[in-house]
Model the fold of this input.
Amino acid sequence: MTTLAGAGVVITGGGSGIGAALARRFAAEGARIVVNDLDAPAAVRVAAEVDGWAVPGDVSTPDGAAALVGAAIGHLGAVDLFCANAGVGTAGGPEAPDADWELAWQVNVMAHVRAARALLPGWLERGRGHFLATVSAAGLLTMLGSAPYSVTKHGALAFAEWLSATYADRGITVQALCPQGVRTPMLEASGRAGRLMLDDTALSPERVADAVVGALADGRFLILPHPEVAGYHAAKASDPDRWLAAMRRLQSHLDTPAPQAPDGTGSAGRDRAPHDDPEETR
Done:
């Protein structure tokens, strides 16, 4: 996408965090914005800020995704850029309830699939379209303490890769946004694992939006607001055993109780991971 000026843009999960920052940044570039969020008041509020249009709803359902795309086309005339940004972070491992796994699957993966299902016929007929998937670095690496999130973000990345390989030669651009840590409510809710792995390098949503705007024009598949993630990903691919050994050390640190303050009410200091080798510990 060479310019956002006049482009019709849909952003799911646009009521806060990265989605709201994208809406504001894209609007500043002249885009026409449709804001979707499950939180209707939040969607309306952000839409009002950017002179856009709010279409609240649950895009993880087949009917919700189809309704959003249909309403956006009716309002904008065409969807030039679809930002599949809505996501949920659910904690735990195999013991997490099936409902948590199902929620992560539906929102983090199937919402992307259902949006693409609704968008592709029109895009293929036009010969162009742009799909931006908010994946997270967890889709390239992992997120300790949250198996449902890690697994489904890997799924979101795999789907974006498949879309790109299948449709790039037919005019469809697909990009995967993979920030390592962003100062949003989701990071705040990630608990000790999130603080330990991400806090030191977490960016503001506005910084992430700037990185997206910079990457839209060249169409690169991976958008990495934290450039170091490329090195971590390469290290993981070239020597997975070494990478897993480092992650096990980090998990061991997580398994150690956090130090208590003198009054016994909380941490006595900043809870930090051992960083012997940054490429091994992220």
In short: The chain is about 50% helix and 10% strand.
